[in-house]
Amino acid sequence: MIDDKQYKIMQFGMEERKVKLLEQELTIKMKKLRAEAVRERLNIEKERLKFRVDALHQRAHLLKEGVLQDDIDSALPL
Fold first, then answer.
1. pLDDT digits (tens, 9 = 90+) for 6-22
2. Residue 78: enclosing H or E segment and its boundaries?
3. How far lies 40's CA from each of 16, 26, 51, in Å?
4. 47, 48, 56, 67: which could form a disulfide with 62 (CB 3.0–4.6 Å)?
5. Residue 11 in 3-state DSSP?
6. The whole model's pTM is what?
7. What does the buried/exposed string (b/e) look like for 30-61 if buried means 16 or more CB atoms within 10 Å of the residue's CB?
8. How far apart are CA 59 and CA 76, in angstroms?
9. Cα dist. 75→50, 54, 58, 60, 66 in Å?
10. Under 8 Å CB-to-CB from 75, ≥6 apart: which residues?
11. SS3 for 16-77, per residue?
12. Which residue positions in the chain have pLDDT lower than 70?
């Protein structure tokens, strides 16, 4: 039979393991949040670049159609 001292040692070990697991869980959650933030920044940058590419395509199309550069610059600023 386990005496009181052994039980307390065993219980302490379990509590210590529980704390380590909670620390690991928090570390993983923090890493996940950082990764999600990076992903969101990249998505924003991607959308910004897509908008810029579309604007450049429109400007090029208007130039080919003979629209003056000054008119394009005033209508589609970059």
1. 888 999 999 999 999 99
2. none
3. 36, 21, 17
4. 67
5. helix
6. 0.67
7. eeeeeeeeeeeeeeeeeeeeeeeeeeeeebee
8. 7
9. 18, 14, 11, 13, 14
10. 62
11. HHHHHHHHHHHHHHHHHHHHHHHHHHHHHHHHHHHHHHHHHHHHHHHHHCCCCHHHHHHHCC
12. 1-2
pLDDT for the residue 4: 85
Residues 6+ apart with CB under 8 A from 59: 72, 76, 78
Q: Amino acid identity of 67?
A: V
All residues at 6 or more sequence positions from 55 whose CB lies less than 8 Å from its CB, including other chains:
76, 78
Using DSSP's 3-state secondary structure scheme, residue 1 falls into coil
Write the single-letter amino acid at 24. Answer: Q
Query: How far is Cα 77 from Cα 68, in angstroms, rounded to an integer?
Result: 14
